[in-house]
Amino acid sequence: MDLLEAIKNRRSIHEYKNEQIDRKVLKQIFSKACWAPNHRMKEPWSIKLYQGDGKKDYAKKVIDSYDREGFFNNYDHQKSNKMKEGIRQFLLNIPHHALIYMERDSDQRKYEEDYAAVCAYIQNVQLLAWEAGVGVLWTTSPYLHDNDFARDIGLDPSDYKLVSVLQMGHPLRIPNPKKRNPIENKMQIIDSGETKKADAN
Ligand SMILES: Cc1cc2nc3c(=O)[nH]c(=O)nc-3n(C[C@H](O)[C@H](O)[C@H](O)COP(=O)(O)O)c2cc1C
């Protein structure tokens, strides 16, 4: 697939077919994405991939987190149970959840480098997945900031940063593209002491 075509046509996917992606295809995507740039060759990304029955435990931990965060506080028992079941079904219907995390470097500059590299890795995953006919949604849900959730999935939050959960599966529906703004609106060219707005050419 042409690079520009992949960049422009990739969409965030919210609805998936009820089928697993071939394990080899998934492994290829996560493996090829490792060619992302990363300072000091730390390759700071790590993945926990929840699928099949593994999603049940994951969904429970997500709902426990929403509960702790007071998401259901304004509802009676019956309503909140219904909401929890809705979230559970929603999560179980997504074929794969790839939780992407990294070690926290105590040096802020290195932490930012690592975070940037992990984001580059994620975008590689998105583009490679798109090329393979696999849809992805890059999510940053509140439970990624819940220390108890991190502990629940076996990661000490003082050592690890949870970056994202990538929802993955074969797309059921591909949304229309959302418009992007011309870069000229955001770009200045500083040339021979003169600052100019970039023109359309
Ligand atoms: C860091 C980051 C976090 C995101 N978090 C969410 C999210 O939590 N939920 C969601 O529906 N989309 C999320 N998105 C996807 C964006 O909403 C999406 O990229 C945007 O609407 C543009 O659509 P497109 O990806 O189809 O071009 C996130 C994207 C990024 C880069």
From TrEMBL:
Q: Where is this region: Disordered?
A: 176-201
Q: Which cofactor does it need?
A: FMN
Q: Return the protein name.
A: Nitroreductase
What domain of life does the native source organism fall in?
Answer: Bacteria
Q: Where are the transmembrane segments?
A: none
Q: Which Gene Ontology terms cover its molecular function?
A: oxidoreductase activity
Say which family it is in: Belongs to the nitroreductase family.
Residues forming the Nitroreductase domain are: 7-170
Q: What keywords are annotated for this sequence in UniProt?
A: Flavoprotein, FMN, NAD, NADP, Oxidoreductase
Tell me which SUPFAM superfamilies the record gives. FMN-dependent nitroreductase-like
